[in-house]
Amino acid sequence: MPQSDRLFEVPVEKxxxxxxxxxxxxxxAGALCDPIIVFPGGGWEQDLPEVLRKELPxxxxxxxxxxxxxxxxxxEACDLEALLYLYPASLFAPMSEQWARIYLYLGTKCxxxxxxxxxxxxTLDAYDMxxxxxxxxxxxxxxxxxxxxxxxxxxxxxxxxxxxECEQMKLF
Length: 172
Prior knowledge:
This protein is mainly alpha-helical and 172 residues long. The protein has five helices and two strands; from the N terminus they run E-E-H-H-H-H-H. It has a two-stranded antiparallel ribbon. The radius of gyration is 20 Å and the shape is elongated.
């Protein structure tokens, strides 16, 4: 782990990804605070199952831990995020056979014993797995983009508050 010359600064080793380096501390915070990326349209975005919505931060943290251990990819979202993305899509319009297999596979992985036995999909072929991984990379990219936009917006709001306070001080 890199050494820090500041007394209270926590040294953070950044992990390489396909598009640069990722800060694991930022990813842990994002696991708790990032928005849920869902399929847009149809009005089903607000109808995510509450039990899965509540489970998501823990699943994200587990995913970050697996990324630390090299068992998962930093560039991909967790399986539950992919399932939650596809949930409104499944209600909006019929899915293709391929995406139905992927959706059932995610349901099987994420819900375990809670998933009906008669529709479980235990494995995916290489092509379907590639499509799932592409979806998970896209979701992660959108999630990080939303995080950065939120950080910029919060920083701009703080700057506006400081400017307003400075101008107020000049009045006195």
